[in-house]
Amino acid sequence: MADPYSGESFRLFVQSVQDYAIFMLDPRGYVATWNPGAERIKGYRADEIIGQHFSVFYPPDDLRAGKPAHELEVAAEVGRFEDEGWRVRQDGSRFWAVVVITALFDDQGRLRGFGKVTRDVSERVRAENELVERRRLFFHLVEAQEAERRRIAWDVHDDSIQAMAAVSMRLQLLSGQVPAEHLPAVRALDTAVAETIGRLRDLVLRLRPPALDGRDLGDAVRAQLRQLSAQGIETELDDVELTDDPPPEASVTLFRIVGEALANAQKHARANRVRVRFRSIDHGTLTEITDDGVGTDVVVDPLGGGDTHFGLQAMRERAEAVGGWWELISEPGSGAMVRCWIPDGPGPARDERDGG
């Protein structure tokens, strides 16, 4: 019985492939065979390219660097060569290609030529670059939002709080000068002013914790946890596996997600204990916020539909907008864990200045 995977069957397979350019080169690098996938990707018909050197597929910079010859040398020496980079179509336009060159030897070990497989991944690269650009824009938006929060925080601190502090001082002086029957009213006013100052300071802390300006995510989150502790909730921060503070924009994103998770633990989960853990992993920061509250069976729809609580959806959107991920692990009556991973930055995009 004939081997169905050799001879004519294999030729038919190669000729039927449309998504990959599959062709043979002779030992000197001249094109010997051509398949429909190669014609679709590179633009040449078989009668136009067979007999030409495969270096016609490379941009001028690669030709000056001797890249085609180098690739064949490596393939002949070690058996194969893999590359990812720009290639040129017949019309001069460029595409991003994944290339594998395999050296072909006969039974006596003599080099008979090369098999070359090329895949056009331009659309994938373009989508990746668009995603990186969206992340970069989001980081810039976060930076702009935080700058505005910082400005408002400074205004509240330098104007409103200082003005209220001055009122408090006058009320304290006045308490020693007014008749006894007016003293309770003055003291009540002073207490109201002191409470207002406290609320304004909490507002300033929420708007822009000073620790974030010092690029210390741990200190900023400790300030959040102190607010919970003041309300009788037991808190813990574990950041020993945070090898380095994330960049400012990533720190801000994490700080806001942690803040939303802590607010949920207090208002909705009715938790008695909350733990926040940071770990540096995969060029980013993994964060876990665990509570012992009432738990939930809410499923957060990644498309934003359903009855998802706004705060949960906001956390997911913050994480995913910068290229991270977010998840909620919980069941009714068993507490909850919010987990998210945020990259250290938007990541590099491939240079498409020469792309076509």
TrEMBL record:
Entry-linked PROSITE patterns: PAC, PAS
Keyword Transmembrane helix on entry: no
Record GO terms (molecular function): phosphorelay sensor kinase activity; protein dimerization activity
Keyword field contains Kinase: yes
Residues covered by the PAS domain: 6-61
Record domain PAC: where: 81-133
UniProt cross-references to InterPro entries, sorted A to Z: HATPase_C_sf (IPR036890), HATPase_dom (IPR003594), PAS (IPR000014), PAS-assoc_C (IPR000700), PAS-like_dom_sf (IPR035965), Sensor_HK_TwoCompSys (IPR050482), Sig_transdc_His_kin_sub3_dim/P (IPR011712)
GO CC annotation: membrane
CDD domains from the UniProt entry: HATPase_UhpB-NarQ-NarX-like, PAS
Keywords assigned: Kinase, Transferase, Two-component regulatory system
Segments forming a coiled coil: none
PANTHER family: NITRATE/NITRITE SENSOR PROTEIN NARX-RELATED (PTHR24421)
Record-given protein name: Histidine kinase
Organism: Amycolatopsis albispora
